[in-house]
Structures are given as C-alpha cells and as structure tokens.
Amino acid sequence: MTKIPGSNLEFVREEDFVEYYIFPKIPDNVEDEGALRKLMLQIRNEISAIVREKSLERSYLWHKDEFQLQVRLGSAEERLLNEETNPEQEAELGDLPPHFHGVTHYGDNISDEWFVVYLLTEITRARGDCIARVSDSDGEFLLIEAADALPDWASPETCEQRVYLVGGALQLLQNSAATSQDEPLTMATAVQRIRMNPTLYRCSRQIQSCIDARLKEYQIAQPHFSIHRQVLELPHSAAQLLKQKPRLLSSAVRAFCERDSLDVKALRTMRYFPPEATRVRTNVRFTRCLYAMLSHQQYLPEKRLGWHLTDPVNEPERYKEQLLGLKLASGLEILATQAKRIEGQKLEDLPAWRSYLRSLQSKGYFRDNIEGSAEYQALLNKAKEYFHGNQERFRTASRAGAEILDLLLHPAEAASEELRDEENNLQPSDSDEWLNISAEDLDSMLQDRYGPKKLYKPNGQMNAEEFTKQLAEFLDRQSNYEGIEHRGLEEPELDSDDDEPPPQAKSSTGLGAKVKKNPSMRKACQRNSVIQPEEPDSTHVRNFLDFVIPEDNWDSTSEMSDYADEDDMERNLNSLSGGGSVFPLDRQIQSYMEQMDRELAQTSVGKSFHGKKAPPKADEDDFDDIEDFEPININVNTLRNMMDSYQSQVGGAGPVSNLFSAMGVGMSAGEDMEHKDISESAV
Asked: From which residue to which does the signal peptide run (predicted)?
C-alpha cells in the first residue's frame, strides 16, 4: 500500500484504519527511563478506565479492532522496532516526546472511526494535560467534515499535522504571517506550541459545531442506536462463548462473510460446534452493520451435516433464528480452525515476520553486528518479543481463534447459569425494518447529509427578489482551478485613492448621486499586468470602469433599467444629457430607447414578460398611448424562466440543476409550478 509520511507499521496498514496519538504532559523531574515508563503505564491505565466506562455505557461493539494504546518513549531503538524511522523522513518528522499511539481498523463500519474521535475528545476533556491527534488514510478527516467552515488558507497541503484535540475541542495551528503556510510542521513542534498557549489555536465556533454534530450520536450515555438485539438458536458451547466474550461476535461474523475454500472445507466437518450438540435460544447483540452482513449472506448447510431447520413458510421467525444461529456458529468454527491451523507454526515461517525482519535490517537495527553474535542475538530476541507483543496489530493471526480454543477447554460455569436464566426470560428481537430502505428514504438521507443548504419549493411560494439576489451574488463571485470562492473568503475590496471619484466629479452631477461601479472588473484589471497605473492609457480604462450612473427617480419600462438594480433610468438619462454631466449623452439616444420600449410593449414578446404595477404619477404621460402598460419585473421573469428550464430537465442533469448545485441551493420535489402563481405578491 502507499506509504503515509509519519505513519507507523506501513506494511500492515489497510485503507480502513484510523491512527491516533495522545501526548501527556510529563513533569520535568522525570528523567529516568524506568520512572518514565512507570508513569506512562499509570496514565494509560487511567485513560483505559475512561474508554472502558464510555464503551460500557453505550454497550458499544467494535467491528474490527478495539481502541488500544501502546506506550512510546521516543527512543531510537523503539522507533526502529515500531517502523517509525525512515532516513528520508526523519528530518521532517522530528523526535516525538513520550506519547501513546494506537491504530484501529474499522472495516465496513465507519462508526468506529468517529467513536474513536469521541473517545479522544472525552480523554482530553477529562485530562486537560493531554493533547491528541487523529488521522486516517485520507489524512486530516476532521477538516473534511468541517470543509464548509474552514478558513481560506486551509487546504490538504497546509493542514497536515496541524489538527489536534485539546480540552475536548478542535485546534488548528496556523503559521505566522511571516512564515509560509506550506512549510511543514512536525508533531513535536505543534505540541510545544499548544503547550505554550493552549487556547490560541482554537477553531471557530462554526468548525467546532460541525464536529459536535457528527459526534452527537455518542453523547448520550445509553446503548448506541446502532445496537440490534436478536434472538438466535445456537449450539450451547457457542452461546456460552458469546456470553463470556461478546467481542467474539464481530470476529465470527467477519470470518463467515470472508470465508475462503479452506474455511468452507472446515464447515463440512464442524469439529468444534457440531450440529448434533444441544442448541439454546439466547439474546445476541449485533451492530446494525454486522447484522446486515450476516443476514444478507446466502448460505444453506449441507443436509448430511445434520442441521435441521424448520419450515420457513410456516415458522418464518423461528427459521430466521436458526439460520442466523448456524451462520454465527459457522463463523466461530472458522476462527477456531484457523487458529488450530497455525498453532504449531514457527515464527520464522510467518511471512509477516520475514517482512518485518527485512525492514529492520534495511534500517540498520542490528548495527552492523555479525549474524549469530551475542549482540545480534540480543537484538533479535528483543525484536521477536516486540513482534509477539504486537501480533494483533501486525495482523498475522486472529487472536479471537486462540481465545475460542482456550474457552472451549476452560468453560465458565457463570456463563452457563446466565444462559439458563436468560432462556426463561428472553427479550423479543428488535424489528429489522430498517434494512428496507425505499428510494424516497434514500433520497431524503442523502439530502440531509449532502444536500444544499437552501431548498426551494416550486409551488409558487418563492421569493423572486431573494432568488435573483442570490443568483446575482453567485455570478459576481470569482473562480479558479479550485472552484468558486465562498462568500466571506473573497479578496478584500481594493482600497486605493482612485476608487472614489474626484470631488469635482461628485459635485458636477448636482444630484448627490450614488456611484455604481464594477468591482470585479476593477480587481481583474488591477491584477492584469497589461494595465499599469503609470501608463497614460490606464486613466481612460479606469474612467470607463468608474462610469458614473447617478440615481434615478422613476420606474422605467426598459429591461436595461432593471439590470441597473431597477433604480429607474429616466433621471439618469436626463442628468447624463444635461449640461452639467461629465458624460453628456445625446437626447436622441433617449428618444430611441423610449420608442423601443413602446414598440416592444405591443408585441407578443413584450406581452410574454410579467409586469409590475407602477405607482401612478401626475407628471408621467410618456406611455399614455399604451393601455394598461406595466413595467417588466425582472425578478419574476428570471424566476419563471429558470423554473421552465428546470422542469424541462425532468429530474435529469441540465444547465439549471448544475447552476443550482454550484450555488449551493436545490429544488425540492413538489407539485408543478404554474406561472400564474409566481407574481409580484411573492416578492
């Protein structure tokens, strides 16, 4: 797999892992390695108690690996044994202070990854001296969750090893203004900076809210909503195992679902859980993920094995209990057989050990000692001991199989008594209707999780003015190869002296007019090296961009007036054609525009536009020759045209739906919109 800078045990990693570090504060007077290790073990026990409490309160069942911490003192030899040291990356990573490190594989259940995040927030909240960091194969996945609220400088390149949990809250380290954000930051440096000022790098409330919303399901101290209780009919020994070690359930389900030809061969004998054994009915707790995996596996045992199942038509519920029970017993059988298969295998024959040994040799772990020498053997024994202690992380064999074999040899009497008591007081199985998701339910779930923040309903109750304003703001944004900038992240407006017209230009209008400009074009020209402030021609370009449009005082019928924010254009034309204007305009142009408005209003095209009632004025007689003349309402007409285009797409991709997606809005499914419903009353 692809190596991840700074990650441990690269050669055993899969894509479904979450990696975490916890940095406790070590007193300065602890310098001896023995005393330091003793202190770290004491802190780990306290952290383990917090994890155990939170897990038991929620009856949490891990899908693959549990939350586990290993002590790291940061010595050179330990870094070599843990596959941390790489000569090409050592300078970049730096030496880490004493810390705890863990890797959890979550398989098909992403909920485990976020439960790890919840545990880390609770650990750092309970122990204010601890600083935690968590990442996965995607990198800083906490920032992915809060992508919509990140600051402008944040990106995958600038945020690597800069996200930490302190006091139960997220912190994001940013370089100073004098330092490039792309400059790498080691974890040791980041921890040191947080220690110096624990609140300086706290994230904004918007970012923290995104993380809190994702962790909300774990906040309540009660069984997690994903727990599914089901009655199963199991061989007595299998039911006894699950009462003693409930975590064996997830291993058994995964082993059954991932069975190969050797495992199928073991299922033909059922040596450890034979079908003729006494079967009991018992309550078993699944996660929804595990229950769905097991129930959707197509499997029927061979009849010669002796699995007698009831009629699925006459007793469907009893048949389901028996079928799920034999699937689970088959998974336990596979685990026991796998453990027995490698029980007598030597360490030197394991592929994982050979790969690990080659890695140590390439990194200089044996310090050029001759193979077979006393020093070499001492280092080799230490590596073997370390490998055995970390065998579960190295994924060489399932510890669950060895546990099953041991429990079969030494059954617990307490588990048998619990089974007898439970058989007379069985709780009913939970409904599994959640497995059946309709297309509408799926659309609703996707809409809630990934849908647009603003949702319009095409039923005529839309605010046309709000819609066109949002569209205009979107079109005014800038874009680059990374996409369209979000509101609030744009470059600051240019604040130069020539942004405002000279005083004489203001006074020359004689109207105290408001100045309207095109800031986007101004910024584009400012960035364009062709237009330099020193060049004489730039003055004419700026004058053109700073074109003054004084405010108007009447409702124009021309569509052009609505593009000027519907601010009435007659006074504009009068002022521009007047003697005092800096931009004199021929009166003939004004007459042309009036004539065009009259002609357009009497055509079918003009009548197709939705108008708005203009307030009557005593001195207004320009359109007396047109009966019931109404100015065009640009807001409503824009909305009508967009809805027509959206409906013509019939739910497929098209220009309007793509535009809505880029704007961050959407259109909900609803009754067909009639044009008569969209009127100025909706504005």
From this structure: none
